[in-house]
User: Fold these one by one.
Assistant:
Number 1:
Amino acid sequence: MSNGPVLVPVLGDQLSHGLSSLADRTPEDTVVLMMEVWDETQYVRHHKAKIALIFSAMRHFARELRDTGFTVDYVKLDDPGNTGSFTAEVQRAIRRHAPRGVQITEPGEWRVREMITAWRDTLGVRLRVLPDTRFVCPLPDFFQWAAGRKQWRMEYFYREMRRKTGLLMDGDKPAGGKWNFDAENRGGPDAECRPPAVSHFAPDAITQEVIALVEARFAGHFGSLDHFAWPVTAAQAAHAFDRFLKTRLPLFGRYQDAMMAGTDTMYHAVISPALNIGLIDPVEMCRRAETEWREGRAPIEAVEGFIRQVIGWREYVRGIYWLTMPDLSKANQLGATRPLPEFWWTGETDMACVADCVRATHKNAYAHHIQRLMVMGNFALLAGLSPQDVADWFLVVYADAFEWVELPNVAGMALFADGGKLASKPYAASGAYIDRMSNYCGDCRYDVKRKVGEGACPFNALYWDFLARNEERLAGNPRLANPYATWRRMSADKQAEYRDSAAAFLETLEPAKKGWARA
Ligand code: DLZ
Ligand code: SF4
């Protein structure tokens, strides 16, 4: 056996100094391998800013590791000999360093895990795959929690995470007397809704070099690099998060489901891109948010709502992903097959809400949660878009999207493609709901009050068409009893008007050209 160093490949979403694969390593005895590889940029053709974020953060992380004494073998995208795949790059690195073993933290995606599993037989050196300890809930614990439950409800899982972390707990009781303050978190965009700006980080020399590379090599990908301002280091992520705590957290809860045209980040933390590549620690963030409440600077409903997203929802979807893959990637319980419309990529639609979400997404590689769910996801559900097409789109366009977090949200939460394992009912809403939670409708060519015919908000007819189309599958759902009762009370003529109106609209959708999401 070689007495060479241990080779530690660190992937583009593993940029944490406390990473499990680095925790027991000493610099003298370790070579860290970081690889910019073509295959990872093409399995879907990511937004330009997402590639730039990952490459820039990887390069900054490599520099920090070197500063702490580690040897980092960093393969740049355009280095001569770069084979373009993780597997072949690890094999090349083994030839360069003759390591006595390879040690890696488990990856975030099924696809990459399959790749790494195959390394056991092909690398010719000992392989150690370590759990990713950057999550509160180890996967075996999640599987145990889910076993034997008919439905996996986030709420109960979340309470266990609260107990486990002690976040917002007074002894064994939830702080503030309740587990959930969401009833106070449903404010629409009123006169007091004037969100302060998020932190912007001007690209330094490393980021500028990466932006030039991405412009040159990924010119045909969706998205703009003109406004690139993401945090690319742990220090910048900490700075951005501090600013959120000070300026936006107090009203985060109240406006978390509100949307305003041209106001791309509202009161959101906008920390998910940094969080999901490892630049900031989720529990540490939650502790800081809790302190804001304990010291009287932010109300409980804002802080509880924030913590629920991080140690509740985020941990829960990760567990669901690993529990239900690979089936989840093919799930289509509602039999939705319509291809994605071209305007999902171009933003060229008269629907003001959709156009604004696509515009913001193109500009920032970001849209906030309710734009994703209530506008894009809801449209996809109502129009019966193919879950696989929609999942590809979400994975391409958002800087924070890795499959473990994106797929359960799209297939489970937004599209009900898993048949209701994750959500208790489909998240279907007509134009009235979008109107209540946004200021989009005032400037829209469509009339949100009109139900059918030319000029009527498409969401209205699509909503009833969705329920009618899926009556057999969904009518038994107790949470849909009211809408189905309303539908059945309508005259046959009225029902036909809705269905014809929806059909006429769906007829106008031009399918997306091939090649936006996958080559
Ligand atoms: C998303 C992505 C991209 C675009 N490029 C790279 C890369 O060149 N090198 C790398 O190590 N990671 C990249 N990533 C992130 C990986 O795809 C990520 O590790 C997997 O999605 C597993 O979560
Ligand atoms: Fe969207 Fe309908 Fe409102 Fe237009 S009228 S912004 S399509 S919800």
Note: The pocket of DLZ (ligand 1) is lined by residues 11-13, 35-37, 40-41, 46, 51, 54, 107-109, 112, 402 (CB under 6 Å).
Number 2:
Amino acid sequence: MTAPGRFLTFEGSEGCGKSTQIASTLVWLRSAGLTVHEVREPGGTPVGEKIRHLLKHDADGDQMWPETELLLFAASRAELVRHLILPTLAKGEWVVADRFHDSTTVYQGYARGLPMEDVAFINRFAIAKQEPDLTLVFDLDPSEARNRALRRPRPVGQKDRLEDQDLKFYEAVAEGYRSLAKHQPQRVKLIDASGSREEIFARIQKELRRAFPSLPR
Ligand code: TMP
């Protein structure tokens, strides 16, 4: 029987430097001989990419209720889990996800204020019980994260409904992630996202080696 693959998720607010570090992590894991699939949320399937556009950029999404937002994120995830994540893990390969259900807990639960038990129920339903093996949360001062997110170049005229939030929202997101790490310390690890790229990557490697001792030293 094939050993089950490993499922690694990266989390954190916009502007925390997640994408750069995911790219370095993928190079490192692949150079260790692993087959690693990269996915991003929302999106990653044809249906999921349409949902992503509606959630992030489409003006029709502007008046969306938080409940609708929650269900759309869950719908995108349900597709991704069943089309891609479960079959990949069953083959013994790795999945690295840029966001997963913890984003929903933090953004729709902590930050938007939807009832946590409803969010937990919908998350469980969407992920078909497939929890990540390890979740790395990039922890950065919320005002620094917001400044970086707002400075990021975007296609001319493109708005981003989810990034264009006030500082209070960014603070709630940071607090939500810290609380998750406190309550699920085995799975959810905070990574200090301040400092140079090299310093941050060294912190990631340390956590990954601790969780998966067969990774190269
Ligand atoms: P990103 O892919 O550029 O990080 O954008 C995803 C945005 O969607 C980001 O603002 C976080 C937000 N989000 C949620 O609010 N809930 C979720 O479940 C997920 C996956 C993302």
Note: The radius of gyration is 17 Å.
